[in-house]
Amino acid sequence: MPQSSEPTYYSLLGLHPSASVMDIRRAYRELSKRYHPDTTDLPSAIATAKFQQLNEAYITLSHPERRFGYDLKIGYSRFGVIQPPLDLNHPVSGSHDRSKSAYLDASDRPLSSGEIFALFMLVLTFVGCLLLAVAIGLTRGEAAFQTHLLQSTPSIQQHINHVLQLITSVVIKN
User: Fold this and answer.
1) What is the rounded average pLDDT for all residues in the chain?
2) C-alpha 135: how far from chain center
3) What are the Cα distances from residue 148, in Å, to 154, 158, 159?
4) How wide is the angle at C-alpha 87 spanned by C-alphas 83 and 90, nearest 5°?
5) Neighbours of 40 (CB within 10 A)
6) Is the pLDDT of residue 164 over 80?
7) Is the C-alpha dihedral spanning 28, 7, 83, 81 positive or negative?
8) CB-based burial label for 24 (10 Å; 0-12, 13-18, 19+)
9) Cα 81 to Cα 18, 24, 55, distances in angstroms
10) Burial zone of 148 (CB within 10 Å; 0-12 exposed, 13-18 middle, 19+ buried)
11) Any idea what DSSP says for residue 42?
12) Cα(151)–Cα(153) distance, integer angstroms
């Protein structure tokens, strides 16, 4: 990787470029709690700048396409490169066991209680609409399928005949 004077997003989060999405999320959460302007003892200007840098790093590294573009920009390649573990004194398998995770995608998350409530209300509304439609169909029976235009046709025909009689009487008088 080429070295530059500006720190990489990985170094801001304290991670190696081969870090998983879960490692990136975990590091971001810890650091964002530490540097959030409302919860830190640092001066407001420094905390805000650091927090913005962390947000920018997380937004870029948590999205696969943006991360791939960023890795190309800094000269890191995931393909054909064997990356050493972060700490050679500790086995890699001792970290987080992903086989016990219930989520296949690392960016997947459980629904919040508000989202579950909204889905429940949508399903309840849909079922209510279906029941209402069935109830109206059963109570109205055949009348539900008849149109008002067919029922009011004789009265419309009477109005048309009356208007025609008036027009012919006016034409005859002139």
Assistant:
1) 78
2) 36
3) 12, 16, 17
4) 115
5) 16
6) yes
7) positive
8) buried
9) 10, 20, 28
10) exposed
11) S
12) 6
- State the sign of the Cα–Cα–Cα–Cα dihedral 61, 64, 70, 72: positive
Q: Enter the tokens of residue 18.
A: 């081969």
Which residues have a Cβ under 8 Å from the Cβ of 32 and sit 6 or more positions away?
51, 54, 55, 58
pLDDT of residue 102: 47
Paired tokens of 5: 């004077």
Digit-coded pLDDT (tens) for 141-151: 766 556 555 55
Please give the angle made by the CA atoms of 100, 87 and 82, to the nearest 5 degrees: 80
Q: In this structure, how many other beta carbons lie within 10 angstroms of the beta carbon of residue 15? A: 20
Within 8 A by CB and 6+ apart from 83, the residues are: 16, 17, 18
pTM beyond 0.70: the answer is: no
The C-alpha angle with vertex 16 and arms to 14 and 22, in degrees rounded to 5, equals: 80
Cα-based distances in Å from 169 to 52, 160, 164, 174 = 86, 14, 9, 9
CA angle 25, 66, 52 (to 5 degrees): 55
| Amino acid in the structure at residue 20 | S
Residues 74-91 as b or e (16 or more Cβ within 10 Å = b): eebeeeeeeeeeeeeeee
